[in-house]
Structures are given as structure tokens and as C-alpha cells.
Amino acid sequence: MNLFKDIKYFTYDDYWKHRGLKIRTKLREREIIFINWVKSGSSILDIACGDSPLLYELKKQKNCRVQGFDISVLIIEEQKKVGIPALAQDITDDSYELNDNYDYIILSEVLEHLALPEKLIEKIKNKTKYLVISIPNSGFYRFRLRLLFSGRFFKQWAHHPSEHLRFWSHLDFLDWLEAMDLTLIKCHASNGLTIGPIKLYNFWKNLFGHQICYLVKLKQ
Q1: InterPro entries, alphabetically (predicted)?
Q2: Distance between CA atoms of 16 and 205, rounded to whole angstroms?
Q3: Residue ranges of E strands in 102-189
């Protein structure tokens, strides 16, 4: 099957129309990890909040003060419908500046969508106590096997190949965090390979972890 057959002009409004303009009712594994990391009563900004119910659950479960940003006006309206204060913001704009400070800034599956995530990190790392990040691990065993046996690059996109612009393995990302002057506090793979009751991704993140979560802070 030709994955590129129906490629056309892409916007994130198109992306959310394709995926469904509705806030999810179920938390994903990584979002459960985030909730466990965040302290009750904290101030939270979720950049590129999308269709996630994370802010709703943080507000409900932990009495957090929440704010959502996303580039899609359509998905922002959906967040507002469930009572989340949300704004349409283009974080890739060179003139973009974050005015407020937060206890936690969440970047869930967003850095890989940016050509220069370094610019965003530089702008926001002094505006928060902690960054909560998740990325898809490009070193995941399925991606390695696909390239080895089919000669085809792994597919991480849902609607258009331009969705993901940057790629890291878990080991790459640890080096990248250090280069960004960020200190790792906690790290968990949220999903990956399991054999029966054994979650192999808990032992070998770089090979068997699919999506990996990082709690980091600015180096002192």
C-alpha cells in the first residue's frame, strides 16, 4: 500500500477533523503517569493539549489550576466545552513569548512535531519549576525490525508525514535533555513490549519502550 497516495496540504485543523473533533473520555498510559507526578493544587500549562482529557482530570482529581494551548482553533473550542481555559497559540512563531509562570509545563507528544524544539525549550524552561515531556521512542524494536526486514522507515504519523519533524531514541533524548541544560528527575516508559505479565519496557526502555515520559527541571 502506498502511504503517500493521498498527501495534500496539511493544517492541524485538518488533523483534528481527521482524528475526530472531540475530547477523549479515556486517559492514555502516559497521562496517568503525568497525573501521578503532578502535586495537588499546582498550576499547569499543557502546550499542544489537543484532544486530551488530562487538564480536565488534573483539575478534577488534584484541584490544579490549568491552562491549555493548541494551534488548532477547532480543538481549543472542544476543550472549552468541557470547562478548560484554553487559547489558540502558535508556539512555532518566532515572536511567541510565554508571559506567565507555572509549576508544571506539559509537552506531551509535541516536541517531535517541531522543526526547532530547542527554541521552545529556551523560551519556557525559565517559566516553570518542572517540564513534563513525552516522546515516541524511535529506537522501539518494531521500528528497527520494520527497517531491517522491509527496508521502509517507520510510520509515526496519523494523517500526514509532515506531522513528525524530529526523531529521538530514548538514549538520544537523554543526551538532548543534557544539551538543553535540563536535569532528569524521573523517567518511565508508558507502553511497549509485554510478554505475559512481564513489561519488558520497564527494564529496557530504549529497545522495548514505545512512548517514554520524562520529568525534568532546569539545571541549578
Answers
A1: Methionine_synth_MetW (IPR010743), SAM-dependent_MTases_sf (IPR029063)
A2: 30
A3: 102-108, 128-136, 182-189
